[in-house]
Specification:
globular; 23 strands; eight-stranded parallel β-sheet
């Protein structure tokens, strides 16, 4: 048993009842279900604060990586109430929740887009220039009013995809941060371009996040600092570290992969902008067909025909020791959270069926969707890993729970294995736990994840999904 908050690291029993942990220690009474997990680690289920996977099929894949709670926070959804209502009506394998979406509110106010709660609306309009430029005062009021409504409806924070709207005024970002500070919720930012990458950017992405934290007092969460900083990560982490030392509330996250993934129509993937990041079209793999995008002409065609089509972006060579070191630095940064940036499944060659299990071989995603947490354990926590097992688990479960718990009382019962905590539990074999998903076989479940309980109900038994189980519950913020 490992519980990073209390420091428990001992061989003992755990009793579960009524969806909560009833006892930790020596348990003598019998139970309706007893699992012998000798030789395994029992700990709190992993809490993913950056997941764009919100459907049943994708969440089952997440559970096989030890995830018991996954939130759509960076992108968010707007309006948030229908998203919660739909998920509750359909049922979910793991716990779920949503931030309000600045990008969608902006698409509505500035771009004239009719909203439907979900990432699909964002991806369909990702390449539309109309929403990416400056907002008028009236449009900004509309954006802020829409976000305030979502916060009143229980949104967990405000997701800000700033890197996708390079023309948005930095003053607008400060207004959104001020709203978040007043509501007592975090913001989750995909940073604007760094000045080393785009010297003409309206403001350096790292400095902008730090300034907002200092000027507004908001809790600013820096999403996937690895993929937006790349080889400039030391400078970015130094900026963040100085602000943290001065008292600003800034948290960071990273994932243990050298490639990113997003819609091929993103502004920063325009052919003329690829050199800013040292990329060529051949560094992009188009998910619907699995093809390496070979030419500028093919990239332009795909951006025109399918701007929301997902594409893998090869930034770093994971087999190169120097690049691997760059990838690891944001993961070992003090109190950095492990978060996946899990991506929706692309159903190629078959119709999407959320209840199909196991997934067809033709289904494609980024391997981080299936393997982030097991990969983090393998690289950081086991063997000669730089963090050790307990600290790695802390970054996978306790720290993400603590990030939200000030406004979300339910999170005070997650990320812990203590009496009264929610019975969100993962059992894994420390000798064999490892990611198995690759860029060629992206939906291969992780190895070594033996059992997963969500709210006390088995979702993974002996390494296999219990297909009848949909024990996930909504997690919402408390009105202020």
């Amino acid at each position: 048993m490992i519980d990073p908050e209390s420091g428990l690291d001992a061989v003992c029993d755990v009793a579960v009842g009524q969806g909560r942990i009833a006892a930790v220690g020596s348990v003598s009474q019998s139970a309706a279900l007893e699992l012998d997990v000798t030789g395994h680690v029992v700990t709190a289920g992993f809490v993913d604060v950056h997941s764009h996977v919100t459907d049943i099929a994708g969440m089952r894949l997440r559970a096989l990586d030890g995830v018991t709670t996954a939130f759509e926070l960076e992108g968010g959804v707007t309006p948030v109430e229908p998203a919660y209502r739909q998920a509750a009506a359909e049922g979910r394998p793991i716990n779920y929740g949503f931030a309000a979406s600045w990008a969608l509110a902006r698409m509505e106010a500035v771009g004239g887009v009719t909203l439907e709660a979900g990432l699909g609306t964002f991806m369909a309009n990702i390449a539309t220039p109309a929403w990416q430029g400056p907002a008028t005062p009236a449009q900004l009021r509309h954006i802020l009013d829409r976000l305030a409504t979502d916060l009143a409806d229980g949104a967990l924070g405000i997701g800000i995809l700033l890197g996708y709207a390079p023309g948005a005024d930095p003053g607008e970002y400060l207004r959104v941060a001020t709203l978040a500070a007043a509501a007592g919720v975090p913001t989750f930012t995909h940073a604007r371009d760094l000045i080393e990458v785009v010297p003409a950017t309206l403001m350096d992405g790292a400095e902008e996040i730090v300034r907002a934290a200092g000027e507004t007092g908001a809790h600013m969460h820096y999403c996937h600092v690895n993929s937006t900083s790349l080889r400039h990560v030391d400078r970015v982490l130094d900026v963040v570290g100085q602000a943290q030392a001065a008292g600003s509330r800034i948290t960071t996250e990273a994932y243990p992969y050298g490639s990113g993934m997003t819609g091929i129509g993103a502004a920063f993937l325009a052919p003329e902008r690829l050199p800013e990041r040292g990329l060529t079209p051949s560094d992009l793999t188009y998910a619907p067909t699995g093809e390496r995008v070979g030419t500028k002409e093919r990239l332009q065609q795909l951006r025109a025909d399918d701007p929301g089509g997902l594409v893998v972006i090869r930034h770093l060579d994971e087999d190169d020791p120097a690049d691997l070191n760059v990838m690891l630095r944001p993961l070992v940064f003090p109190d950095a959270i492990v978060a996946s940036d899990a991506m929706p499944l692309t159903w190629s060659g078959c119709d999407a069926d959320q209840l199909t299990w196991p997934l067809p071989d033709s289904v494609f995603t980024h391997p981080r969707t299936a393997g982030t947490f097991s990969r983090a354990l393998r690289m950081l926590g086991t063997g000669d890993g730089p963090l050790g097992l307990t600290e790695t688990l802390r970054r996978c479960s306790l720290l993400p729970a603590q990030l939200l718990e000030a406004r979300v009382p339910a999170m005070r019962r997650k990320g812990r294995v203590q009496v009264g905590s929610d019975a969100d539990i993962v059992v894994f074999d420390p000798a064999t736990v490892a990611d198995r998903a690759t860029y060629a076989q992206s939906t291969r479940p992780s190895a070594g994840i033996r059992h997963v309980l969500v709210n006390g109900e088995p979702l993974v038994r002996d390494g296999a999904i219990v297909t009848a189980a949909l024990p996930g519950k909504p997690v919402r913020a408390q009105a202020r």
